[in-house]
């Protein structure tokens, strides 16, 4: 447990006194086959230190070569962010002691990022659109991964030694930096989450990254500062590093606003520093001081040629861009005929792709929505996993729905079937078959259960015979129970009314 000693003001009070300013640095790991500057494979989760070459190990005398696909990914991302693409850009060395980067410098871009001056429209949960200006998107390489041993919960403090895995060293990264974001007010934490979600959606849509936050494919550093209400001068910022889930981004921004407010309120000053987010305490702790004048001794990388992006190349990549997420949403909303609220709920639940695939596999949009937003969301929530990771496929939903439409199962049985599908018992049709979960419409089975129910409830029988047809429901219930929910309720009703000689 990482106890925070920081004082915080309530969020509401902080918001009465201060206006937040935000800035995000989002790192996107590309899914290229090989690394940024060498032919080592870019694969997640392999045996440590197997995906390395002399280049990614920084051995003397090696020469890096730029990965063309990574540059194309950067151009596509730049275009999707509405940026200008630089005709000529250079790589630079950012010098620093990096225990996880054996070269002791990171190859990055400095004053000549490949893409700059863009903007994205971020849609908040209530439909408000907030424009976020993009300052730059530049190419660089990832560091290796350190694992600290012997201390508490993998922390460097108190560790006896550290292990280093260079598989990730040299993996292509694009860093997207926003201009300072002013005017979000109380929506600042939400904006942070929705902005990062949009970047994730864009890179996934472009197909340039696996975009899995839990694997660190998309990582956000969140800069926060406060200005007293009425002031237009930015305060000192803190930079919370590597926040690895959407929920954490929102919480980290919220926490930092509350912490800054408490410091400023008591007459203190904010230290410009990096901070670390801790999910367990939902708070940040101090990292290292970081001034704007930190001197990384940037200089042009002498071993790499400049990246020259001719007009034709850019236009070819522009023509290959997929439909932008905002336009795609508009199209799907119209196609599916969902209300504003229904559609927004779908987007916020992150099941747009799933519903789209379910619909294109043959389900009606309303049915697809009902499943993904209802029972499947409930199961994911219960198991505390993302809906996409639950293991239900669009194909399963189409099949389940088809079984309902054909009268083979009812809604209740469908939920049972789904639970068995998740246990790995096969497709919905297979589960129905193997477990005998189909609706019972065999009259002889039903008649026995109906006779029982009528014998037990003569008063209800009398009511129905006296013309109160709606009372028949009281007889259907026990029949459903006796058949473990598998009776065809419509057929049961018909049979009862027939027996009592009453017109339905
Ligand atoms: P560094 O890497 O040193 O943190 P960057 O320029 O890469 O610097 O990123 C800084 C981020 O912080 C940018 O998104 C920028 O817009 C934002 N920012 C700058 N000043 C402030 C401020 N006073 N308050 C909040 N965010 C800020
Ligand atoms: Mg930065």
UniProtKB/TrEMBL annotation:
<keyword id="KW-0648">Protein biosynthesis</keyword>
<dbReference type="InterPro" id="IPR017958">
    <property type="entry name" value="Gln-tRNA_amidoTrfase_suB_CS"/>
</dbReference>
<dbReference type="GO" id="GO:0016740">
    <property type="term" value="F:transferase activity"/>
</dbReference>
<dbReference type="InterPro" id="IPR003789">
    <property type="entry name" value="Asn/Gln_tRNA_amidoTrase-B-like"/>
</dbReference>
<feature type="region of interest" description="Disordered">
    <location>
        <begin position="275"/>
        <end position="296"/>
    </location>
</feature>
<feature type="domain" description="Asn/Gln amidotransferase">
    <location>
        <begin position="353"/>
        <end position="500"/>
    </location>
</feature>
<keyword id="KW-0547">Nucleotide-binding</keyword>
<dbReference type="InterPro" id="IPR023168">
    <property type="entry name" value="GatB_Yqey_C_2"/>
</dbReference>
<dbReference type="Pfam" id="PF02637">
    <property type="entry name" value="GatB_Yqey"/>
</dbReference>
<keyword id="KW-0808">Transferase</keyword>
<keyword id="KW-0436">Ligase</keyword>
<dbReference type="InterPro" id="IPR017959">
    <property type="entry name" value="Asn/Gln-tRNA_amidoTrfase_suB/E"/>
</dbReference>
<comment type="similarity">
    <text>Belongs to the GatB/GatE family. GatB subfamily.</text>
</comment>
<dbReference type="InterPro" id="IPR014746">
    <property type="entry name" value="Gln_synth/guanido_kin_cat_dom"/>
</dbReference>
<keyword id="KW-0067">ATP-binding</keyword>
<dbReference type="GO" id="GO:0005524">
    <property type="term" value="F:ATP binding"/>
</dbReference>
<comment type="subunit">
    <text>Heterotrimer of A, B and C subunits.</text>
</comment>
<protein>
    <recommendedName>
        <fullName>Aspartyl/glutamyl-tRNA(Asn/Gln) amidotransferase subunit B</fullName>
        <ecNumber>6.3.5.-</ecNumber>
    </recommendedName>
</protein>
<dbReference type="GO" id="GO:0050566">
    <property type="term" value="F:asparaginyl-tRNA synthase (glutamine-hydrolyzing) activity"/>
</dbReference>
<dbReference type="InterPro" id="IPR004413">
    <property type="entry name" value="GatB"/>
</dbReference>
<dbReference type="GO" id="GO:0070681">
    <property type="term" value="P:glutaminyl-tRNAGln biosynthesis via transamidation"/>
</dbReference>
<dbReference type="InterPro" id="IPR006075">
    <property type="entry name" value="Asn/Gln-tRNA_Trfase_suB/E_cat"/>
</dbReference>
<dbReference type="InterPro" id="IPR018027">
    <property type="entry name" value="Asn/Gln_amidotransferase"/>
</dbReference>
<comment type="function">
    <text>Allows the formation of correctly charged Asn-tRNA(Asn) or Gln-tRNA(Gln) through the transamidation of misacylated Asp-tRNA(Asn) or Glu-tRNA(Gln) in organisms which lack either or both of asparaginyl-tRNA or glutaminyl-tRNA synthetases. The reaction takes place in the presence of glutamine and ATP through an activated phospho-Asp-tRNA(Asn) or phospho-Glu-tRNA(Gln).</text>
</comment>
<dbReference type="Pfam" id="PF02934">
    <property type="entry name" value="GatB_N"/>
</dbReference>
<dbReference type="GO" id="GO:0050567">
    <property type="term" value="F:glutaminyl-tRNA synthase (glutamine-hydrolyzing) activity"/>
</dbReference>
<dbReference type="GO" id="GO:0006412">
    <property type="term" value="P:translation"/>
</dbReference>
């Amino acid at each position: 447990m990482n106890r925070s000693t920081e004082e915080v003001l309530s969020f509401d009070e902080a918001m009465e006194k201060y206006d937040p300013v935000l800035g995000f640095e989002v790192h996107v790991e590309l899914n290229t086959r090989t690394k940024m500057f060498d032919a080592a494979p870019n694969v997640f989760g392999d045996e440590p230190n197997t995906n390395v070459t002399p280049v990614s190990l920084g051995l003397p005398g090696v020469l890096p070569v730029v990965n063309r696909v990574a540059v194309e990914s950067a151009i596509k991302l730049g275009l999707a962010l509405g940026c200008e693409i630089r005709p000529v850009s250079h790589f630079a060395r950012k010098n620093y002691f990096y225990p996880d980067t054996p070269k002791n410098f990171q190859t990055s871009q400095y004053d000549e990022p490949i893409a700059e001056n863009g903007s994205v429209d971020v849609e908040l949960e209530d439909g408000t659109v907030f424009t976020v200006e993009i300052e730059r998107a530049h190419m660089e390489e990832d560091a290796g991964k350190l694992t600290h041993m012997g201390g508490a919960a993998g922390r460097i403090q108190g560790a006896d030694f550290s292990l280093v895995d260079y598989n990730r060293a040299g993996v292509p990264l694009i860093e997207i930096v926003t201009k300072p974001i002013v005017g979000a007010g109380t929506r600042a934490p939400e904006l942070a989450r929705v902005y990062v979600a949009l970047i994730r959606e864009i890179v996934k849509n472009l197909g340039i990254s696996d975009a899995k936050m839990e694997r660190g494919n998309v990582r956000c550093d969140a800069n926060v500062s406060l200005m007293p209400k009425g002031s237009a001068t930015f305060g000192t910022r803190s930079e919370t590093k590597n926040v690895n889930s959407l929920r954490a981004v929102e919480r980290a921004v919220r926490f930092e606003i509350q912490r800054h407010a408490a410091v400023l309120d008591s007459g203190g000053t904010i230290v410009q520093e990096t901070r670390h987010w801790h999910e367990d305490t939902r708070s940040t702790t101090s990292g290292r001081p970081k001034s704007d004048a930190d001197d990384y001794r940037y200089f042009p990388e002498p071993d790499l040629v400049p990246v020259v992006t001719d007009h034709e190349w850019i236009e070819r990549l522009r023509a290959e861009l997929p439909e932008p997420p905002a336009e795609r949403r508009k199209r799907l909303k119209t196609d599916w005929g969902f209300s504003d609220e229904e559609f927004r709920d779908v987007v916020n639940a992150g099941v747009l792709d799933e519903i789209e695939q379910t619909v294109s596999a043959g389900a009606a949009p309303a049915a697809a929505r009902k499943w993904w937003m209802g029972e499947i969301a409930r199961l994911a929530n219960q198991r505390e996993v993302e809906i996409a990771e639950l293991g239900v496929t669009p194909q399963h939903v189409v099949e389940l729905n088809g079984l309902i439409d054909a009268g083979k199962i009812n809604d209740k049985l469908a939920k049972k079937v789904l639970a068995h599908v998740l246990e790995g018992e096969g497709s919905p049709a297979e589960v129905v078959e193997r477990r005998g979960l189909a609706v019972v419409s065999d009259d002889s089975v039903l008649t026995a259960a109906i006779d029982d129910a009528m014998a037990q409830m003569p008063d209800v029988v009398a009511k129905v015979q006296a013309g109160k047809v709606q009372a028949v429901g009281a007889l259907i219930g026990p029949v459903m129970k006796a058949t473990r929910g598998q009776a065809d309720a419509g057929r049961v009703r018909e049979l009862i009314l027939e027996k009592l000689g009453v017109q339905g």
